[in-house]
Structure formats: structure tokens, C-alpha cells
């Protein structure tokens, strides 16, 4: 019996030890989980702090880059202005140059000007002079240290050394007025050349019509479209056909149209008349003067010799419509009449007189 009791006590002690071990293991497992959770919390908190620091550094860097341009502009305004002018100007110039080359190829493939828009023809006319004007700057800037000399010099004389691609809006308006003012100086000499040949015309009805046109111009008004067209035959033969104009007369016409004088004056005038006629036909193809924007109207009038400063859109449309009404009745034999249209419709215009006087 004593032995049985000892066995029972031994079993009881064994069961107590086993339950104690299990309890201890459970406690260890819970402790391990707790430590793991705490470690994860600390790790997450550390990563969160690290991400915040990284985000802060990146944001500060972005703000620095954004403000760096302003910082440079404040400290080096001339250099930044020069960079901006030439970077934007070169980009626009190369874009127009590519368009110009494609237009030359289009003409070579006998598609001619009939498939070209008004803007393309105007670009085609303008680009050669722009290319000649900017050529010295591009050539000298390619030389070692040449850009340090030519770029500041070009900024000092943008009208002579840079094309319109490098001009600001204010400079474009100012230089256009100056160019037109120079061109208008030749209006009066051209009118004198026309008047000088009046008596060479045989007595006829057309001579009287022409005498009336000259009288209107001399008295400060302009002839109507019908009055100009009534004298068309005088510009298809003697004395006002291109083949019969004097060398001086042709020189004045070239300067009035903004073209440099050269030895081949008659050829240049014929080509310019052809281009003007193509521009007019392009305007008609695209819907007439009523669909032109304000900028397009100003450019079209400027090309044809009218000062558009402070001029309303409707006034520009009316003036341009007069011109196109004449050009629509002109062929290659009457190019001389088209070249003299700036005299017929702009000689006494108040906007032009403001520039001259």
C-alpha cells in the first residue's frame, strides 16, 4: 500500500513537471512573438523615418533645381537672356529652314505654287533674306571662342545680324515699322517716274484715264479698282511694261518692295511680281481676306506696303480686297501693274503718311 502511494506521488510530480514545462514553453513562445512584434514595429518606424528623410532630401533637391534658374537669372541676367534668345531663335530658324527646303523640293517636282498655302509662300519669300542675314553669325560662332564675340555683338545689333526668329515681339513690330518707313521713301520718286512718261502716251481715252489716276494721286486720294484696271494696257506695253522701265525706275521699285538693288533688276522685279501674284491667289483659294487672322492681315498688308499700326481688322480687309481685285485681273504680261499697286492704293494712306511725315 505504501508502494502504491509512492507511485501515485511520483506520477503526480511527473505530471506537475510536465505541465510546468508546457507552461514555460508557451510563455517562451509568447515572449518570442512579443519580441518579434516589437522588432517589426521598430523596423517599420525606422523605415518610415528613413523614407521621410529621403523624401525631404529629394523635395529639397527639386526645389533647388526649380529655383536655380531664377538664381542664375538674378546673378547672370545678360547670360541667361543671351542663352534664351539664341536657343529659341535657333530652334525656330531650323524649323523654318526645314520647311523652306521641303518647299524647294516641292517646286522642283513641278508641283509649283498652286499646292502651297499662303503661309508657305510667305515663308518661301522671307527665308532667303533671313538666311543671308544670319549666315555671318553662324559661321563666326563655329570658330574657336568666336561665340564669345559674335553673340554679344549680335544682341547689340539684332536687326542687322539676326533674323526675325531671334527677335522679340516688340522688336518685330519696331523693325517692321522701320523697314516700311525706309521703303515708303521711294514712293514719291516712283510717282515722279510715272508722271514723267505721261506725255509719251498717244492721245486716247486710256491716256485721259491715266491722267485722272495721276491727278488723284497728286491731290491726296487713291483711284478706285476700276480706274486702275482701265489703265491696264499701259502696263502691258510702252511706256510702263517692265521691258520699258528705266534703270532708275526699276531701282526705286526694288527698294519700295524691300529688295536689294542689283544688276539684274528686271529679273528680280518679274520674280517678285510672280510671287506676289501667287500669294494673292493662295488667299483666294483659302477663302479670301475674311478668313485671315489679325496677324495674317498685318503681315499681308506689310508685304504690300501698308502700315497697319492702329488699323482695324475691317480696314485691313477692305484695303487688301482692293489689291486682290486688281491682281485677279493680272497675268504675266501685266506684272508691272501689280508692282505699282503700292502707289495706287497706299501712296496717300494716312497710316503711311504718319510714318513719312
Automatic annotation (TrEMBL):
Organism field: Papilio xuthus (Asian swallowtail butterfly)
Coiled-coil portions: none
Compartments where located: Mitochondrion inner membrane
UniProt key word Transmembrane: yes
Domain Letm1 RBD: 180-357
Membrane topology: Single-pass membrane protein
Entry protein name: LETM1 domain-containing protein 1
Keywords in alphabetical order: Membrane, Mitochondrion, Mitochondrion inner membrane, Transmembrane, Transmembrane helix
GO BP, sorted A to Z: intracellular monoatomic cation homeostasis
Superkingdom of source: Eukaryota
GO CC terms of this entry: mitochondrial inner membrane
Lineage: Eukaryota, Metazoa, Ecdysozoa, Arthropoda, Hexapoda
Chief place of localization: mitochondrion
Gene name, Swiss-Prot/TrEMBL: LOC106126140
UniProt keyword Transmembrane helix, yes or no: yes
Transmembrane stretches, start-end: 134-155
InterPro entries listed in its UniProt record: LETM1-like_RBD, LETM1/MDM38-like
A molecular-function term among this protein's GO annotations: ribosome binding
Amino acid at each position: 500500500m505504501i508502494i502504491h502511494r509512492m507511485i501515485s506521488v511520483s506520477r503526480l510530480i511527473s505530471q506537475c513537471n510536465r505541465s510546468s514545462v508546457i507552461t514555460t514553453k508557451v510563455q517562451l513562445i509568447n515572449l518570442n512573438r512579443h519580441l518579434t512584434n516589437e522588432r517589426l514595429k521598430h523596423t517599420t518606424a525606422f523605415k518610415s523615418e528613413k523614407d521621410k528623410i529621403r523624401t525631404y532630401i529629394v523635395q529639397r533637391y527639386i526645389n533647388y533645381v526649380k529655383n536655380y534658374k531664377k538664381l542664375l537669372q538674378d546673378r547672370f541676367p545678360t547670360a541667361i537672356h543671351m542663352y534664351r534668345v539664341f536657343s529659341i531663335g535657333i530652334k525656330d530658324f531650323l524649323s523654318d529652314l526645314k520647311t523652306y527646303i521641303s518647299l524647294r523640293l516641292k517646286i522642283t517636282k513641278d508641283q509649283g505654287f498652286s499646292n502651297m498655302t499662303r503661309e508657305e509662300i510667305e515663308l518661301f519669300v522671307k527665308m532667303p533674306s533671313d538666311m543671308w542675314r544670319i549666315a555671318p553669325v553662324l559661321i563666326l560662332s563655329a570658330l574657336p571662342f568666336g561665340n564669345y564675340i559674335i553673340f554679344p555683338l549680335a544682341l547689340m545689333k539684332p536687326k542687322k545680324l539676326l533674323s526675325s526668329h531671334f527677335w522679340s515681339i516688340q522688336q518685330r513690330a519696331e523693325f517692321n515699322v522701320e523697314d516700311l518707313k525706309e521703303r515708303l521713301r521711294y514712293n514719291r520718286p516712283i510717282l515722279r517716274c510715272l508722271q514723267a512718261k505721261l506725255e509719251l502716251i498717244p492721245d486716247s481715252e486710256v491716256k485721259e484715264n491715266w491722267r485722272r489716276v495721276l491727278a488723284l494721286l497728286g491731290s491726296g486720294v487713291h483711284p478706285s479698282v476700276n480706274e486702275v484696271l482701265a489703265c491696264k494696257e499701259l502696263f502691258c506695253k510702252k511706256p510702263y511694261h517692265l521691258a520699258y522701265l528705266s534703270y532708275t525706275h526699276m531701282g526705286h521699285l526694288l527698294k519700295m518692295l524691300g529688295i536689294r538693288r542689283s544688276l539684274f533688276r528686271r529679273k528680280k522685279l518679274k520674280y517678285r511680281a510672280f510671287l506676289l501674284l501667287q500669294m494673292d491667289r493662295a488667299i483666294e483659294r483659302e477663302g479670301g481676306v475674311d478668313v485671315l487672322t489679325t496677324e495674317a492681315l498685318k503681315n499681308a498688308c506689310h508685304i504690300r506696303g501698308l502700315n497697319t499700326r492702329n488699323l482695324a481688322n475691317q480696314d485691313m480687309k477692305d484695303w487688301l480686297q482692293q489689291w486682290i481685285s486688281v491682281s485677279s485681273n493680272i497675268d504675266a504680261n501685266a506684272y508691272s501693274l501689280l508692282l505699282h499697286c503700292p502707289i495706287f492704293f497706299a501712296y496717300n494712306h494716312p497710316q503711311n503718311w504718319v510714318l513719312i511725315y
